[in-house]
Amino acid sequence: MVIRCVKSGHSALVERFLTELKQASKQGSVLDLACGSGRNGLYLARLGIPVVFADHDADKLSQIDSIIQTEKLPAKTWLVDLEAGEPLVDTMFGAIIVFRYLHRPLFKGIKASIADKGLVIYETFNEVQRAYGRPHNPHFLLRENELVEQFDGWQIIHQFEGTVPEPECSISQIVALRKPR
Q1: 26, 32, 106, 107: which sits with the fewest CB atoms below 10 Å from its CB?
Q2: DSSP track, 62-100
Q3: How far apart are CA 100 and CA 125, in angstroms?
Q4: Comparing 8 with 69, which gets the higher pLDDT?
């Protein structure tokens, strides 16, 4: 399966692990963290999976809210500053999906906010991306094996680090299942 570095449409990774996301959503909503335009969460909500769209951009969330209301989707939005304090404290989700976003202090909250047997799907740029363009800032680039290290002790069902085509970029991905506590 060729995974592309495409910004339009939902991620192939979400589609590939749809069965696992449906199963995880029985334990709680799927959190689309730093959702942006909501492309991945909207794909899931349109399939009947409950989704919470979290972002700091009120305009984008307003657009998502309009779609939710028009299409009567099982979803809601959450206007939140993900980089202030610990925004995931006292939250619980069946799954959390994160694409093209990295704020390392959130890893602890992400792991704590996923229910037992819940799922995380995480994909963003890694350090090799500097050879292909933006971002260049190391704060926004994963180190080699960083996702595997962050989710140590979880059941890793997919892991990838490398260059993908169209447009060419370098990403890291993980899909991991939380083991019962």
Answers
A1: 26
A2: HHHHHHHHHHT-SEEEEE--TTSS-TTTT--EEEEEEES
A3: 7
A4: 69
